């Protein structure tokens, strides 16, 4: 429930980036075998840049989105449709291999694989992009993850923490992030606060930048048990100012 609320809040925050964008969407429901109740369920919804940036910046942004969303090297990506179809075909092969040939299935699993991506609030010369992924391979529950990518609007380059912060930033920011996570957990889910492994709360590269400051996201199991869900922490510009380049 907590993860669903967090995801909804972020998606509702999505706004126009003053760039021209489009969406690629695809859905698949493929039974494991004829008359089988088990199926592969696949969906993709990806926002991408169509205009409003230089051609070079547009191509870099789109290539990075594809490589991050489908875990492919930038040189291996083609158009959004080509890359998504190749990912889907690889997923089909994996599903059939793991669960037996369609004629004689040995598995009794329904798999689900959902990938989505959209631009969220831009800030100054930076574009923020949010990727969400849900995977179910049987068992008690699936896994949802959320990844943020920051782009330089002019160059189209993906930016890292090192592009914003001076050397030696890791420990000071980690201390601030631990305070932020603890305060947030004690406010929203005090019964779970003691489950956070604070030594794992560090600047992990999964961040966005906005008017309020920098936001970091920690995936399920990254800083504690699955019950924590997705954990977020925000540091204001005032807090991080001493460590900026």
* Low-confidence segments: 1-17
Alpha plus pi helix count: 6
Strand order of the largest sheet: 1-2-3-4-5-6
Number of strands: 9
- Helix-strand topology string: HEEHHEEEEHHEEEH
Q: Helix coverage percent of residues?
A: 25-40%
Query: What characterizes the major β-sheet?
Result: 6 strands, mixed
How many structural domains does the protein architecture include? 2
Give the CATH H-level superfamily of the largest domain. Answer: Fervidobacterium nodosum Rt17-B1 like
For the termini, the CA-CA separation is 38 Å
Give the CATH level 1 class of the largest domain. Alpha Beta
Overall mean pLDDT stands at 89
Structural write-up:
By secondary structure, this protein is an alpha+beta fold. It folds into two domains: 1-159, Fervidobacterium nodosum Rt17-B1 like (Heat Shock Protein 90); 160-245, Actin, Chain A, domain 4 (Alpha-Beta Complex). 30% of the residues lie in helices and 29% in strands. It contains six helices and nine strands; from the N terminus they run H-E-E-H-H-E-E-E-E-H-H-E-E-E-H. A six-stranded mixed beta sheet has the order 1-2-3-4-5-6. Strand 1 and strand 2 form a beta hairpin. The longest helix has 20 residues, at 80-99. It starts with a helix and ends in a 5-residue tail after the last helix. The relative contact order is 0.14. The model is unreliable at 1-17 (pLDDT under 50).
């Amino acid at each position: 429930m907590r993860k669903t609320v967090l995801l909804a809040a972020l998606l509702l925050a999505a706004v126009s980036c003053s760039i021209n964008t489009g969406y690629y969407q695809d859905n698949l429901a493929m039974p494991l075998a004829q008359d089988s109740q088990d199926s592969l369920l696949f969906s993709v919804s990806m926002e991408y840049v169509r205009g409003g940036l230089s051609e070079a910046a547009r191509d870099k942004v789109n290539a990075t989105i594809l490589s991050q969303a489908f875990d492919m090297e930038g040189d291996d990506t083609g158009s959004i449709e080509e890359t998504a179809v190749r990912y889907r075909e690889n997923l089909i092969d994996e599903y059939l291999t793991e669960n037996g040939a369609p004629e004689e299935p040995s598995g009794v699993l329904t798999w689900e694989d959902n990938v989505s991506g959209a631009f969220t609030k831009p800030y100054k010369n930076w574009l923020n992009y949010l990727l969400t992924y849900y995977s179910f391979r049987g068992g008690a529950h699936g896994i949802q993850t959320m990844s943020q990518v920051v782009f330089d609007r002019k160059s189209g380059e993906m930016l890292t923490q090192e592009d914003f912060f001076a050397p030696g930033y890791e420990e000071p920011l980690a201390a601030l992030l631990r305070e932020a996570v603890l305060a947030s957990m004690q406010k929203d889910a005090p019964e779970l606060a003691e489950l956070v492994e604070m030594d794992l709360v560090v600047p992990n590269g999964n961040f966005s930048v906005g008017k309020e400051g920098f936001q970091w996201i920690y995936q399920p199991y990254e800083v504690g048990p699955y019950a924590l869900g997705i954990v977020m922490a925000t540091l204001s510009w005032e807090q991080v100012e001493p460590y900026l380049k």
